[in-house]
Specification:
366 residues; alpha/beta; Rossmann fold; Udp-n-acetylmuramoylalanyl-d-glutamate--2,6- Diaminopimelate Ligase, Chain: A, domain 1; 2 domains; 6-stranded parallel sheet; 5-stranded mixed sheet; 15 helices; 41% helix; globular
Length: 366
């Protein structure tokens, strides 16, 4: 039997709903309230190498932010790499994996007053290896918070669907946190979901508005994720991208689409649009970063003189072999999770949870 402590499991209705944002914020608030928190992500899918160990990416982030990096292996006891699931199907080893998680849990909670457990995706993720969120929450004696998207009907439907699996495993759902709620519909959505959940006997613990910063990648992150070549501007790779335009129109039209922190996608032979982007940025220097970066597509590179001008602008210039629309599609579907270098995002995530989540009700009911 797992010893009694403030023990909360963060689940969601789908992947990338905002579990890590909530975990970052709750950890800080638990600290401020003297609860001496620990953190564990029992089952991880996306990993990084740390001292030759595969560590879940979200666990690594928490370890770096809250200075508990020395406990990473316990914080990420089971990771699912390539071929893991197929091997498990033919050679199940549920007892071994479960014991691994329980041992890590016990190690982490020694001397602690609380623990935040981050799940993977929705309630059923991990069922194939007998470690669904519901299985793990039950095993560790946790109460669950479900993180949902910011809609009404679909969100409530999916919350109820997820809750059904937790109910089956006799796991208490403490409540729901809505995330990424559009500000123009904020009060309407919050009021409707709160009442809709109340009708089902479920608490609404908070509604976090959408924040463009949290989904805004840096040029460096785009370069790495899309495996692009850097032509120039390495010093400015930390610039964030808030808007993206495909510069295939005439230059006099393109200039109307340049906003603060814009990524420009254009064929490498469209010197006219390249020059408009550079000149517009140069004129705005000292006021704000008008152009965050330029991706030159089609495997085309401008002449030497144009390249020299690009270097002087200090705008990050990236080279892509694919055509403009293929690159644009990849940029649009990028998911840039918070990284340890994203200090602005980390601060914003903490503040959002502090401002919009009822942490006192969470703590009182754990």
């Amino acid at each position: 039997m797992i010893k009694k402590l403030k023990n909360v499991f963060i689940s969601s209705i789908y992947q990338n709903a905002g579990k890590t944002t909530v975990s970052l914020g709750l950890y800080k608030l638990f600290q401020e309230k003297g609860l001496k928190p620990a953190f564990i992500k029992p089952v991880g899918q996306q990993t990084v190498k740390v001292n030759d160990e595969d560590i879940d990416k979200d666990t690594y982030l928490i370890g770096e932010v809250y200075h508990c990096r020395h406990r990473l292996k316990d914080m990420s006891p089971v990771t699912i790499g390539p071929g893991f699931t197929e091997k498990y199907v033919f050679q199940p080893s549920s007892d071994k994996l479960q014991q691994k998680i329980i041992d890590s849990f016990k190690n982490l909670t020694k001397g602690k007053k609380s623990i935040i457990i981050e799940g993977t995706g929705h309630a059923g993720v991990g069922s194939v290896i007998d470690l669904s969120n519901a299985d793990v929450a039950s095993m560790l004696g946790s109460k669950v918070i479900i993180v949902s998207g910011g809609g009404i009907g679909r969100s409530i439907d999916e919350i109820i669907l997820n809750k059904a699996l937790f109910d089956l495993k006799k796991v208490e759902v403490l409540g729901v946190i809505l995330n990424k709620v559009h500000m123009d519909k904020y009060e309407k959505v919050k009021r409707a979901v709160e009442q809709g959940l109340k009708n089902k006997g479920i608490r609404l613990l908070g509604a976090i508005p959408i924040n463009p910063l949290l989904s805004a990648p840096t040029i460096g992150q785009i370069m790495n994720l899309l495996n692009l070549e850097l032509l120039s501007g390495q010093i400015s790779l930390n610039r964030r991208v808030k808007h993206t335009i495909i510069a295939s129109m005439e230059p006099y039209n393109m200039i109307n689409y340049l906003q603060e922190s814009t990524l420009v996608l254009t064929s490498g032979d469209r010197v006219d649009n390249i020059m408009v982007a550079v000149s517009s940025h140069m004129l705005m220097q000292g006021k704000r970063n008008h152009v965050s970066g330029i991706i030159l597509t089609g495997g085309l590179v401008p002449t030497t003189k144009i390249i020299e001008l690009l270097k002087k602008s200090k705008i990050p210039i990236l080279l892509a072999k694919e055509d403009t629309y293929t690159v644009a599609g990849k940029v649009e579907h990028l998911i840039c999770k918070i990284q340890k270098t994203d200090k602005d995002k980390i601060l914003e995530a903490r503040q959002l949870v502090k401002n919009y989540v009822d942490v006192d009700t969470i703590i009182a009911n754990l």
